[in-house]
Amino acid sequence: MKIVNNGEYEIRFNQKTGAMLLQGVNGHPDPKKLKYPLLMDIGIMGHCHNQCHFCYQGRINQPNMTLDNFKRIIDEVRDDVMQVALGGRGDPNKHEDFEKIIEYCNENNVVPNYTTSGKNLTDRELEISKNCGAVAVSMYNSDYTFYSLKRLMKKNIKTNIHFIFDGLSYFPIEDLLKGKDIWHGKVDLDRLNAIIFLLFKPVGAARKMTMFQAVNYQFENFYDLIRKNSNNLKFKVGMDSCLSNKIQQRMKISSFEKTFMGNCDSARYSVYVSPDMKLLPCSFGSEGVEIKSSIKNLWDNSNLFNDFRLKTDLYPTVCPIMKG
Asked: In which order are the strands placed within the sheet that holds 20-24?
């Protein structure tokens, strides 16, 4: 258990299960903004060979984040950050210092997680992944997707699927939430930890692909199916806050449901660091502030972060980046 208590709020994080409790203490309310982010999305990869047509990171080609820069980040945040999500443009397990990055997180009591396509996943990368909190595999419905999922779960690594929710994928997702095995035995649903649904965002390489956006009835039916069937599914179901916001814009959500359907936590609980060492509220943004001083100083004082928070204060379910 990792605990942070600064007299105003307390965070308790179970590093084995991922369960977390955040609450105000000493008469203070539950915080809307933390003194430090508890989750950091760190883009260690600067380029990708997969060239997916819908990639929100675009096709920018930069050097990968250096190991020294990664260590610089962890050295500053290790007392307050509970976990990091390793990402960027490409598969983090292909970073030249992947093993050292995972080791440095563990040495500093920060839980590392990462998302991968699963393509060309090596035996050594599997062994290193045993030291991660969880590994997510992006669902491409390819042979390498199913093969990597099988190998990860065989190693007893907590494994999730990241499934993009859009106007076309809605239909297999609907079948999946009705209990149908849409992958015909290629995924061991009994061993899978969770399926996390991620809202399709028309940004980056997908900025002109607005025809893929889901429509109102699809959001509504999706959440109705979760309400009705989640207790009968073999796996846990999650969604990113972007998808949660879209549902809350369109449906009446009970006070109980709101306890586990948060709004955007960017610039409040979480932050993104780009491969070239810029700080952004989240990875879908195009503008960041260069980390010349401390992350703490930028978190508290930069106009970018303060403006982002003001907009989400005024319109909690509207993304300041995508305006919807």
From this structure: 2-5, 9-13, 20-24
* Mean pLDDT, the chain cut into blocks of 10 residues (324 residues total): 95 93 95 94 89 68 95 96 94 97 97 96 97 96 96 97 95 96 95 95 69 89 92 91 90 83 88 96 86 93 94 82 67
Backbone dihedral angles phi then psi of residue 194, each to the nearest 5 degrees: -160, 160
> Is residue 276 left, alpha or beta, with left meaning phi > 0 and alpha meaning psi from -120 to 50?
alpha
Rounded to whole angstroms, the Cα distance separating 88 from 162 reads 15
The answer to pTM > 0.85 is yes
Strand partners, 3: 12
Taking the C-alpha atoms of residue 159 and residue 173, their distance in angstroms, rounded to an integer, is 19
The residue written with tokens 């006070």 in the block is 255
| Superfamily per CATH, domain 32-314 | Aldolase class I (3.20.20.70)
The residue type found at 87 is G
Strand partners, 88: 45
Show the tokens assigned to 85.
């999500």
Instruction: Identify whether the C-beta of residue 167 lies closer than 8 Å to the C-beta of residue 211.
Output: yes
Q: Distance (Å, rounded) from C-alpha 135 to C-alpha 98?
A: 14
| Closest among 159, 66, 73 to 114, alpha carbons compared | 159
For residue 143 the two structure tokens come to 């042979």
Cα 74 from Cα 141, distance rounded (Å): 35
Domain-by-domain residue ranges, the chain?
A: 1-31, 32-314
The strand ranges marked E within the chain are 2-5, 9-13, 20-24, 39-45, 83-88, 111-116, 135-138, 159-165, 194-199, 236-239, 270-273, 278-280, 289-290
Nearest by Cα to 214 from 198, 190, 237: 198
